[in-house]
């Protein structure tokens, strides 16, 4: 059984509240002000966390992809994804925004991507300036951590510019970049149930909008098939892993999630599994398979 087979258990989510519509409008209005769009993806689910609405909005604007949380993803799979994007003429940079790994390479990639535009401005008599960019992506993929890491936590504001209202302040990123921050945007409907499932696994979808118990069982079955040794090592399980509730119950007993009378506290066990997976304690995992080309 695969996570795609089980994806029917995830409800068809309609998720486009008013603030998301406003965010999309802001992106469209400000796109002309930047040289490069930075699309932030979760390295564990590069396809599932890629917002098709953003791709439509961005159009032909130069783009750099950040594969954030690369420290939690399968290294070989991340390299394959970087190569996949390269075949499409898109630079993708693996990054660990929390610890700062890959950030220097990202800044260089953005500056290189914007060079044609900035050089053209100088050739037409304009004063040389830093590359201007915006970071786009779905919520909860680490955008705040990336911005804080890029700015060194200072978030130095740049003075107002012609055509830029007072509400649109730029954040200076060293001497090479200026960043216009934008809100995260989710797409109107999760057409791909497998993508919705992966977003639930990683925490990009709020745990309050789906049945956590069902999702945890699907996550365990996915890991049992794709990364069984990591499950066995983390929870000291036997070589023949059970499935479904039996596996969750065994994990609960191993981790001491017991109620009076020795019964397993399933809710506590579920939270342990989710926390362990999302924090990387279950090993470096990539859930999205290497895609056929072109896809993104």
From TrEMBL:
Sites where the protein binds GTP: 68-71, 140-145, 184
Gene Ontology cellular component list: cytoplasm
InterPro entries the UniProt entry points to: G_CP_dom (IPR030378), GTP-bd (IPR006073), GTP-bd_ortho_bundle_sf (IPR023179), GTP-bd_ribosome_bgen (IPR019991), GTPase_MTG1 (IPR016478), P-loop_NTPase (IPR027417)
Keyword Nucleotide-binding: yes
Keywords linked to the UniProt accession: Cytoplasm, GTP-binding, Nucleotide-binding
Recorded GO MF terms: GTP binding; GTPase activity
Presence of the UniProt keyword NAD in the record: no
One Pfam match: MMR_HSR1
Signal peptide region: none
Origin: domain of life: Bacteria
Subcellular location: Cytoplasm
One GO biological process term: translation
Domain CP-type G: 20-188
Similarity comment: Belongs to the TRAFAC class YlqF/YawG GTPase family. MTG1 subfamily.
PANTHER family tied to this protein: MITOCHONDRIAL RIBOSOME-ASSOCIATED GTPASE 1 (PTHR45782)
Role this protein plays: Required for a late step of 50S ribosomal subunit assembly. Has GTPase activity.
Descriptive protein name: Ribosome biogenesis GTPase A
């Amino acid at each position: 059984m695969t996570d795609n087979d089980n994806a029917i258990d995830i409800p068809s989510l309609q998720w486009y509240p008013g603030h998301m519509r406003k965010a999309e409008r802001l992106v469209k209005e400000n796109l002309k002000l930047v040289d490069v769009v930075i699309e932030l993806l979760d390295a564990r689910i590069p396809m599932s966390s890629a917002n098709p609405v953003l791709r439509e909005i961005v159009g032909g604007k130069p783009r750099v992809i950040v594969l954030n949380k690369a420290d939690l993803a399968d290294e070989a799979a991340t390299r394959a994804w970087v190569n996949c994007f390269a075949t499409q003429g898109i630079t993708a940079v693996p990054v660990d925004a929390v610890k700062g790994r890959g950030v220097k390479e990202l800044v260089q990639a953005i500056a290189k991507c914007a060079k044609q535009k900035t050089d053209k401005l100088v050739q037409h008599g304009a004063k040389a300036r830093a590359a201007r960019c915006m970071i786009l992506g779905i919520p909860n993929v680490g955008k705040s951590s990336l911005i804080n890491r890029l700015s060194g936590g200072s978030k130095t504001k740049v003075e107002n510019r012609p055509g830029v209202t007072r509400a649109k302040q730029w954040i200076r990123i060293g001497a090479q970049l200026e960043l216009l921050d934008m809100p995260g945007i989710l797409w109107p409907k999760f057409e791909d149930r497998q993508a919705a499932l992966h977003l639930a696994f990683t925490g990009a979808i709020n745990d309050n909008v789906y049945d956590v118990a069902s999702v945890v069982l699907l996550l365990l079955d996915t890991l049992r098939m794709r990364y069984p040794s990591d499950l066995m090592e983390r929870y000291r399980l036997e070589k023949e892993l059970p499935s479904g509730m039996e596996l969750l119950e065994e994990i609960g007993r191993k981790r001491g999630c017991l109620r009076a009378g020795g019964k397993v506290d399933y809710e506590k066990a579920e939270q342990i599994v989710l926390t362990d997976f999302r924090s990387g304690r279950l090993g470096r995992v990539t859930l999205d398979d290497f895609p056929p080309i072109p896809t993104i």
